[in-house]
Design goal:
Cobalt-precorrin-4 Transmethylase, domain 1, binds S-adenosylmethionine, alpha/beta, Methyltransferase, Cobalt-precorrin-4 Transmethylase, Domain 2, single chain
Length: about 240
């Protein structure tokens, strides 16, 4: 029997209308949907984004929801990643394609990358369908552009001394996972004397989206801060 293929699908930042046509087509025909969830008690966010598309699914399909908890213990995490990969491999070995859905884009800080590393060793066919990444969604919601001409955009998933080292070289900084950050972020950014625009977006493109000037201090998970130096673009809507 021919093994199924793994399809990593980016479902965008939240609004189902930001799903790509290609993602919708793949979701409507995948026999297995793999929707990672961060806790047994919390529904998968990626799954809620594709819910309406799955309701139009023509044939029977199975939804698997492996756990990817937000813990720091690397050894414990590897066990979860391996468990998820084995569950997926089981389905692929039955000849079923598995659509692994992930928030934003699968190539950027995504649970998909951990599973992909394990599955690649198994010589399985893998397709990746890109999604609208959260930070471009956030820039759009804030009504700003991220870069032009020779400007450098830096994506920061964790604030530490590396940020202070590269700060002077970048023009726009996208700070993701802001719930993890402490006052250190503000201290580092404020050390730079250039003019700056600081905008935070929470729950981008969702019904309860918030866009505001300044840093986000309330530890919301879906929260991104964009710091734009040399800003001559005040035409945002805030
Ligand atoms: C694990 S990363 C996932 C990134 C995702 N793969 C992407 O392409 O955007 C999670 C971080 O992405 C950002 N994020 C994802 N969705 C968001 C949203 N709807 N609004 C604001 N930030 C979001 C937040 O910074 C969050 O902590």
């Amino acid at each position: 029997m021919q093994r199924g293929k793994l399809i990593g699908i980016g479902v965008g930042p939240g609004d189902p209308e930001l799903l790509t046509v290609k993602a919708v087509k793949a979701l409507k025909k995948a026999p297995v949907i793999c929707a990672p969830r961060s806790s047994a008690s919390r529904p998968s966010l990626a799954l809620s984004i594709v819910r309406t598309v799955l309701e139009e699914h023509k044939s029977e399909h199975e939804i698997i929801e492996p756990l990817f908890p937000m813990i720091e213990d690397k050894k414990a995490l590897e066990k979860y990643w391996d468990g998820a990969a084995q569950l997926i491999i089981e389905k692929l070995n039955q000849g079923l394609d598995v659509a692994f859905i992930t928030l934003g884009d699968p190539t950027l800080y995504s649970t998909f990358s951990y599973v992909l590393k394990i599955i690649r060793d198994e010589d399985i066919v893998v397709d990746i369908i890109p999604g609208v990444t959260s930070f471009t969604g956030c820039a759009a919601s804030a009504g700003i552009t991220l870069a032009e001409k020779d400007e450098i955009v830096v994506i920061v998933p964790k604030v530490d001394e590396r940020l202070s080292q590269i700060l002077e070289h970048g023009d726009t900084f996208v700070i993701m996972k802001t719930s993890r950050h402490t006052d250190l972020l503000e201290d580092i950014i404020n050390q730079d004397e250039r003019d700056k625009l600081i905008i935070s977006v929470q729950n981008c493109s969702m019904d309860d989206e918030k866009v505001f000037k300044g840093f986000a201090n309330d530890k919301k998970y879906l929260s991104t801060t964009i710091v734009k130096f040399r800003d001559d673009n005040e035409d945002n809507k805030n």
